[in-house]
Amino acid sequence: MLAANVAKGERFIAGARRLGEKLPGRIVDVRGRGLLLGIELSSDAAPVVARCREGGLLCNLAGEKTLRFAPPFILSEQEIDEALQKLTADGFIRIFS
């Protein structure tokens, strides 16, 4: 189970880093361990958290500029992909466009 969660976390982190490549200068850092993920932004993260929640993606703030994701261990790879899609469609792109 632990190895599976590490792999899921790596998938989530890699996807968030790809999102950072699409938004240079907006995402400062992506970091995490296992399924605990932080995405540091160059500006206030509160509007992104609000947009994500409106889209059904639960995250919270870890400081003024950092989004924190702490999904349950039962998270599937499909749900990770859906979360990354929601970040793209509902969170970052609309806020930063």
Pick out its properties.
alpha+beta; globular; 97 residues; 4-stranded antiparallel beta sheet; 3 helices; 52% helix
If helices are DSSP runs of H or I spanning 4 or more residues, what is the number of helices? 3
Ranges where pLDDT stays below 50 over 5 or more residues in a row are none
Average pLDDT, rounded to a whole number, is 89
Largest sheet: number of strands, sense, barrel closure: 4 strands, antiparallel
The radius of gyration over CA amounts to 12 Å
Percentage of residues in helical conformation: 40-55%
Shape: globular
Number of strands: 4
**Beta-strand fraction estimate:** 15-25%
Structural class: alpha+beta
- Please trace the helix and strand order, writing H or E for each element: HEEHEEH
Which strands sit side by side, in order, in the main sheet? 1-2-4-3
Distance between the termini: 39 Å
Task: Describe the protein.
With 97 residues, this protein is of the alpha+beta class. The protein is built from three helices and four strands. The chain has helices at 2-22, 46-54, 77-96; strands spanning 27-33, 36-41, 60-61, 66-69. A four-stranded antiparallel sheet has the order 1-2-4-3, covered by helices on one side. Helix 1 (2-22) packs parallel to helix 3 and helix 2 packs across helix 3 (77-96). It is globular, with a radius of gyration of 12 Å.
Write a brief caption for the model.
The chain has helices spanning 2-22, 46-54, 77-96, and strands spanning 27-33, 36-41, 60-61, 66-69.
